[in-house]
């Protein structure tokens, strides 16, 4: 473990068609937290510091506090499954089967830009 990173660097995420996101200990292999809130399967997730982002077939992304498991924001805007995302600083870009990319501010929950151009997902 690198100094200053704490136990967060020893956690892994998984999403499931049971609509949950699980946080696992990379050391013990045990589930240490289950995040409940999506109404569809969780297809993508990423963790950085104390933030977890998840994308779902329910067409939303959720921003979670990794320490408490609390959902901080639900990001609405996609009209189909959220298939992928990338978290960078206070922004996340999400890709959906609706053939759009959306850039979000994870601190406010606001959609900053919608990028269109693909004709199929």
Write the layout of secondary structure elements.
Elements: E1 11-15, E2 20-25, E3 31-36, E4 42-48, E5 51-56, E6 61-65, E7 71-75, E8 82-88, E9 91-96, E10 100-105, E11 111-116
Antiparallel strand pairs: 1-2, 2-3, 4-5, 5-6, 6-7, 8-9, 9-10, 10-11
Pfam family, one: WD40
GO molecular function, one term: ubiquitin binding
InterPro entries: WD40/YVTN_repeat-like_dom_sf, WD40_PAC1, WD40_repeat_CS, WD40_repeat_dom_sf, WD40_rpt
Protein architecture, described:
This protein is mainly beta and 121 residues long. The protein has one domain: Methylamine Dehydrogenase, Chain H (7 Propeller). It is built from no helices and eleven strands. The strands form three sheets. The protein has a four-stranded antiparallel β-sheet, with no helix packed on it. A hairpin with a 2-residue loop joins strand 4 and strand 5. The protein is globular. The N terminus is likely disordered.
